[in-house]
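quick one before i forget lol
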Amino acid sequence: EVQLVESGGGLVQPGGSLRLSCAASGFAFRLYDMSWVRQAPGKGLERVSAIGSLGTSTTYADSVKGRFTISRDNAKNTLYLQMKSLQPEDTAVYYCARGGVSGTDYRGQGTQVTVSS
């Protein structure tokens, strides 16, 4: 059974940082591209970032480019998203998803990120 469990969300002030983690199990993590997607209140899903299976290729939404960094540790079956210079518009539920820019098939339950003073 594919499982993706996100952690690391919370409340942070504008300009602050957070690091999200996603623990993957039930599939060969090292063979899959992975993504972080988010859903802000009242809006649809947005792909924030994606990373290739080897961790050498990454893509970012224009809205987070230069502020967010995606990475992975295939030995630990874990995906990460380092977020800095957070802004109120980054407030959303963040999901880890299996798959990359071609599409995703599973995602976790999500972790809430709230940016507010």
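fyi The CA atoms of residues 102 and 110 lie 21 Å apart.
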